[in-house]
Design brief:
Number of strands: 12
CATH class of the largest domain: Alpha Beta
Largest sheet: 8 strands, mixed
CATH architecture of the largest domain: 3-Layer(aba) Sandwich
Distance between the termini: 67 Å
CATH superfamily of the largest domain: Periplasmic binding protein-like II
Length: 300
């Protein structure tokens, strides 16, 4: 049986280029020259006798065999990190890295306190935050581009740790005719121009209207929440967003509860708790402690 001579550095270079779709970005993340990254990938391809990456005028793309190799390569790096963290833990040193995927509303409202507490308790564990839409975060978890990510339940195919429920609220302009109310039925919004969030909540909001047997008059579909609130403030339409997504300054807006109330249920998700690194396990445990402390504060 022929022995394969590959190194973790080669695997790391390939994975980083494949995930970033760029040799330049990969070299910056790895702290290597671009030529060194290119040489590492080329050496790996030569040893494996296959082409993993190809370039054309549109950039870099992964070959079919490269896609299959990428999954194993990511697992190799995860296992190497597990070995490092396990041996560090054995001698009393909590070290490692947690790549965390989240969407902006949770990053701004929920994560800062948790990350501060985690850093104080585990200064040797680095947390790297990646922000995207709900769908992007799920894809990152499945492809192992991140170690753990925030998802809206249910999350098929993933193991989860519940962290919060987030109430959906109706938002109109301060001078809107509905602004006299503090609570509103979703039917009252059906005749208004509706601004639909494309950041990830669209399926849940659409389901609310479907449950009420009505269809929103969707005039705009917008990803950026700042744009949505600016349009609402200018009287261009109304919207529904989770409470965590509300702007810090809502002076030009009127916010109302929905009747009946609707929530999105948030959780941290990993491909498998059994294969999660020690650093990820500690992060999830700290998240549980953090949530318990928040619940205690609310109760008192």
């Amino acid at each position: 049986m022929k022995r394969i001579h590959i190194t973790l550095a080669q695997i790391q270079a390939f994975v980083m280029v494949a995930e970033a779709k760029s040799f330049t970005i990969a070299s910056e993340h790895l702290g290597m020259t671009q030529s060194a990254v290119s040489h590492a990938v080329a050496a790996l391809e030569k040893e494996l006798q296959v082409s993993l990456l190809e370039r054309d005028r549109n950039g870099i793309f992964i070959t079919e065999i490269g896609q299959r190799v990428l999954l194993y390569a990511q697992d190799m790096l995860t296992n190497a990190e597990r070995i490092r963290q396990e041996t560090s833990a054995a001698v009393g040193l909590a070290t490692g890295k947690v790549r965390l995927g989240s969407f902006p509303s949770v990053s701004a409202r929920f994560l800062p306190g948790l990350l501060r507490q985690f850093r104080q308790r585990y200064p040797g564990i680095e947390v790297v935050l990646f922000e995207g839409t709900d769908d992007e975060v799920r894809e990152w978890i499945h492809t192992r581009a991140v170690d753990v990510g925030v998802v809206v339940l249910p999350a098929d195919g993933l193991e989860t740790v519940s962290i919060a429920q987030d109430e959906f609220l109706a938002v109109v302009a301060r001078n809107h005719q509905l602004a006299e109310q503090h609570q509103i039925h979703i039917r009252q919004l059906s005749h208004e121009p509706f601004i639909m969030s494309k950041a990830g909540c669209q399926p849940l909001i659409t389901a609310m209207f479907r449950q009420a047997k009505i269809t929103p008059k969707t005039q705009f579909e917008v990803i950026d929440l700042r744009t949505i609130f600016a349009m609402v403030q200018e009287g261009m339409g109304v919207t529904i967003v989770p409470e965590m997504a509300l702007p810090t300054d809502s002076s030009g807006l009127h916010i109302m509860s929905l009747k009946p109330k609707h929530f999105r249920h948030l959780a941290f998700a990993v491909p498998s708790l059994e294969t999660a690194t020690p650093a990820v396990v500690e992060f999830l445990n700290e998240a549980k402690v953090w949530m318990q402390s928040l619940s205690s504060d609310v109760a008192t």
